[in-house]
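Memo to structure team: turn this sequence into structure tokens by end of day. - J.P.
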Amino acid sequence: MVYLLSDDISVGVFDHEDFSHNNLRTPDNVDWRTVVHPLMDMAPTIVIDTRIPSLAVVEEIKRMVQNSGLSKCIFVTRDCGDSPALDAAVSEQAVRVALNTVSADELVPYMKNLNRG
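Reply from structure team:
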């Protein structure tokens, strides 16, 4: 899913501070994993909001750890740097140190500079 990264754009309830409304929905009786997993495999960059440790987010982080996909992830943390979903999903400190983490305010500038490096 593509999220609007422009600071100047907001669409309805979507805004850069609250990603909770920007979720992929699947039809009834369709397991979300069958839709999300292929998208995650294809995406060059994945942004995961780790501020709230929902079961689905923790599961997806664990999947990225198992599939060596952490290098393409950007994890959104609370402003203080806390990340409850990462705490629940990743216990190895060596893995945690290597992760790309940003606050919600830092996400847009970080994403804009990804291809300039």
